[in-house]
Amino acid sequence: MGHTDLMHSYMQRREHRLIGVMSGTSLDGVDAVLVSIKTDAQQRVVKVSLVDQVSIAYTPQVRDLVNRLCIPGSSDINDLTLAHFGLSHWNAAAVNALLAKGPYAGSDIEAVCMHGQTVWHAPNPQIFPGPSGDLSVTGTLQIANPSLVASLTGLPVISDFRSADMAEGGQGAPLAPYIDYLLFGNKGHGVAVQNIGGIGNVTVLPGGDDASGVFAFDTGPGNMIMDAVVALGTNGRKLYDEGGSIGASGTICQSLLDALMEDPYFALVPPKSTGREVYGQTFVQELVKKAESLALCFADIVATATAFTAYSIAKAYQDFVIPHTALETVIVSGGGARNTYLLSLLRQYLPEGIVVTTSDAFGVPDQAREAMAFALMGHESLLGRPSNIPAVTGARKPVVLGTITMQHI
């Protein structure tokens, strides 16, 4: 079966089963979800349901390797090449583990929709030599080889979702707003769906009758800085602040928080996106250096890093959301949804009356949302339909996302 046959067969069905696979900027592992998508006669999405999910945590060795790939000068081209193929095995293992749980066999699944592991995101133009003069170039790199995943799973793989948007002048991020509209849209009520993975990003649902008013952007750091501070402070014995207990035991240093909030990213107007290239190792090292000069203890540094994430989210809402939306509810997903101290600070920093809850309350586990989003994008791709939102990414036009790699016969 070729691409055309696959797409033709797909269009004839009213219920579709796809597997979404996501590896986030927290570098914690691979999440795979089996999603059922029901459509009407015009192939409009009627219902998106999570059937099952699997998460496979990276080993310390893999996490360290991927982390070094995200730090300029810390790895070489051989590391990148091996990781590109090595992480394919991790993605395939998550898919196969999901299939092993049932209730569906591989023959019941129409495609794997794989995001891959982001190792570098460069949405801001840089000069690159061209055939007839200097070029202004942007880019992004997600690794895990789709041909190898297709071989290991026996399924077609849709991958490289961000490149088509960037080819049309977009930032390639964020890409999840459409599924947020389907899962969390509440007509007549302003809702913000705040993902807190390695990076924080928000989808704003103003409450209209369609998705035309939806907008989204990266709010700034999510768990990335908190996780790095905890790993440094415990010599790697802990990789994150479970439940926020360390942060809750410390005291926020307001002067350091104020200094952190001077970061120029927060003044940029959406559409905008960011990543580990901004809030990675160098940023954390400078933060810890400042904290130590202020004689802060470990718990105080974690508390302040947690407050930085919470306050930067609230500030983004104050600047770019609340002026345009009657915001009533914030729905938090991602690993940050399990940090009760972070959620308490977010409630504290937001205006009174705004309810902060988690995606779990809506039947969407916090680790499932982004993988579900890529399953839905793959669905749109198989129908030949765009799934980027230019008002969100800054692209010149809507485009079909992803590249299809057929299974090996």
Lay out the secondary structure.
Layout: H1 3-11, E1 15-23, E2 29-39, E3 45-57, H2 60-69, H3 77-101, E4 111-130, E5 133-143, H4 146-153, E6 157-159, H5 163-167, H6 177-184, E7 190-196, E8 199-205, E9 215-221, H7 224-233, H8 245-248, H9 254-260, H10 276-279, H11 281-293, H12 298-321, E10 327-333, H13 340-349, E11 355-358, H14 369-382, H15 390-393, E12 403-405
Helix pairs in contact: 3-4, 6-14, 7-12, 9-12, 12-13
Q: Return the structural class.
A: alpha/beta
Largest sheet: 7 strands, mixed
What sequence of helices (H) and strands (E) makes up the elements? HEEEHHEEHEHHEEEHHHHHHEHEHHE
**Terminal residue distance:** 9 Å
Number of helices: 15
Rg value: 21 Å
Count of DSSP E strands? 12
The overall pLDDT, averaged over residues, is: 93
Poorly predicted segments: none
Beta-strand fraction estimate: 15-25%
Shape, principal axes of CA atoms: globular
- Helical content (DSSP H or I, runs of 4+): 25-40%
Short account of what is shown:
This protein has 409 residues and is an alpha/beta fold.
Give structural notes.
- The structure is a single chain.
- This protein is of the alpha/beta class.
- It is built from 15 helices and twelve strands.
- Strands 1, 2, 3, 4, 5, 6 and 12 form a seven-stranded mixed β-sheet that branches.
- The radius of gyration is 21 Å and the shape is globular.
- The N and C termini lie close together (9 Å).
- The relative contact order is 0.17.
